[in-house]
Amino acid sequence: MPESKGMAVGVQSLDRAISLLKLVATAYKDGMRLIELVDASGLPQPTVHRLLKQLSAGGLLTQDRARKYRLGHFAYELGLVASSQYGLKELCTPFVASIAQETGDTAFLCVPSGEDAFCIERCEGVYPIKVLPVEVGHRRPLGIGGSGLALLAFLPPADRERVLEKIAPRLASFSGLNLDLLRAHIERTQADGYAVISNYAVAGVTSIGHPLFDRYGSVIAAMSVSGVASRMDGARRMMIVACLRKACEALQAKLYRLPLDSIQGGQRG
């Protein structure tokens, strides 16, 4: 096999293995069986079985007694090492908690991870009806929810189109969302400077998101508030937007004063 062809095959296998890891990570509470991973990935069963075997041999995955795949011990070790290098969560958590306290609703912090939004912090407000669409460690396609939409809308155009192409087959599972509807939401988000999206992630829930930029103007995270849609009227929406904007501006000012190598939170593959 020519070297260039061999490299291409290796890269394709790596991409597929990473996709399987992400699927298992998304279902970290319940785990996933082989057939579920085949259906979710769209890959041939022999390919999925081979990659799962290799990932398990490397300690990145493990199988429980129910034959479900879960993240393995080496994935845990990698997470511990990586956590010491990414300080964004620690910097943002007080701001996320303040937003939840001020609005009374649940506040989230998400970062871009390939074509997904990855939740790294969640703080609950005091309002008795809790809206908890995602947990820390959960990932959804960019464009879903307030944080995901804010992240997607402010990506560079070429990156945004690449993401849209990849997530298009997954959109229908979110209450019939499609590319045309999502593009309309993106345009509105870009015009307003913040995201508002209702019902697609969770029926009866409205989520409002605001982007967080680095000193070069690249979106590195987004904070959002989710609440019962009937509670999110016009005046309340603007109060939440003002709260999110204030927190993001204060946090950005703090980030800009830090050395470049002391904080990382940009696009993750």
Concise summary:
With 269 residues, this protein is of the alpha+beta class. It has helices at 3-26, 34-41, 45-57, 73-83, 88-103, 145-153, 157-167, 179-192, 234-256; strands at 61-63, 69-71, 106-113, 116-123, 139-141, 195-198, 205-213, 219-228.
Characterise this structure.
Helices cover 48% and strands 18% of the residues. It has helices at residues 3-26, 34-41, 45-57, 73-83, 88-103, 145-153, 157-167, 179-192, 234-256, and strands spanning 61-63, 69-71, 106-113, 116-123, 139-141, 195-198, 205-213, 219-228. The strands form two sheets. The chain has a six-stranded antiparallel sheet, with helices on both faces. Strands 1-2 form a two-stranded antiparallel ribbon. It is globular and about 55 Å long. Strand 7 and strand 8 form a beta hairpin. It has 269 residues and is α+β, with helices and mostly antiparallel strands. The protein folds into two domains: 3-81, Winged helix-like DNA-binding domain superfamily/Winged helix DNA-binding domain (Arc Repressor Mutant, subunit A), CATH 1.10.10; 85-262, GAF domain (Beta-Lactamase).
